[in-house]
Design a protein that fits this description.
13 strands; alpha/beta; elongated; Alpha/beta knot; 2 domains; eight-stranded parallel beta sheet; single chain; 26% strand; 7 helices
């Protein structure tokens, strides 16, 4: 069924899209059409992450291929007014999948998965790359559902220490923390349009990690006195910063 609020199923196609052309859908989008059992003549909406969306109609269905006829481009954007980039200590099990999905729906601009000292999930080499690709696909699917036409970038998994050594925050840098000097998040963010948000894993930051961030200019921000789970805190923060 189409996503709630949209008249036609939305398909992410990471490929150039030209009005009037006959387009063979990428494998993921083609599978989506087949799962929905869309027949020739059914309308769909395409987006490639570069802005706007296109009307299209299913033109031909093959055993493993789907061709659509592309209609007009519409300069529709549904991005949040504030740009928030999230760096997060990776939560365990499948919670990162859920976090990426919901963060995308809320309007996050990018996600940087981090391995911190207390991160339970340890990823190396090929496995880390596969996880990155998987989370990027989760973000694209979330955009199909929520109506975003720009897919947030999921960066490569990085150890906290090496990432922090090269991180150059562009905009306001906020550290979610229970530090006694932490300001309420909305007060700390004010009306600044670009925010870098750093959130810890299960067990939180070590004293050394938190001190390093504070020493390099990250400002402590709080969501209140309650201790939230690693996957709850960043979503609560994104809701506070992005939901209009």
């Amino acid at each position: 069924m189409p996503s709630a609020g949209f008249s036609a199923p939305r398909l992410h196609c990471a490929t150039p899209i030209v009005p009037g052309e006959a387009l063979m859908l990428p494998a993921g989008a083609a599978r989506h059409v087949q799962v929905l059992r869309l027949q020739p003549g059914r309308p769909v909406t395409l987006f490639n992450g570069e802005g706007g969306e296109w009307d299209a109609v299913v033109d031909r269905m093959g055993r493993n291929e789907v061709q659509v006829r592309v209609g007009q481009h519409m300069a529709v954007e549904r991005e949040a007014a504030r740009e928030v980039h999230l760096a997060i200590g990776i939560p365990a099990n499948d919670r990162m999948d859920w976090l990426v999905e919901k963060a995308t729906e809320l309007g996050v601009a990018s996600v940087q998965p981090l391995m911190t000292e207390r991160t339970v999930l340890r990823l190396e080499a090929d496995r880390a790359e596969k996880k990155k690709a998987h989370w990027q696909a989760v973000a694209a699917a979330a955009c199909e559902q929520c109506g975003r036409n720009r897919v947030p970038r999921v960066h490569a998994v990085a150890p906290f220490a090496s990432w922090f050594a090269t991180a150059r925050p562009d905009g306001l840098a906020l550290l979610l923390s229970l530090h006694p000097e932490a300001q309420p998040l909305r007060q700390a963010a004010g009306s600044i349009g670009r925010v870098q948000l750093l959130c810890g894993p299960e067990g939180g930051w070590t004293a050394a990690e938190e001190q390093r961030a504070l020493h390099h200019g990250w400002r402590p921000a709080s969501l209140g006195a309650r201790v939230l789970r690693a996957e709850t805190a960043p979503l609560a923060a994104l809701g506070a910063l992005l939901v209009e």
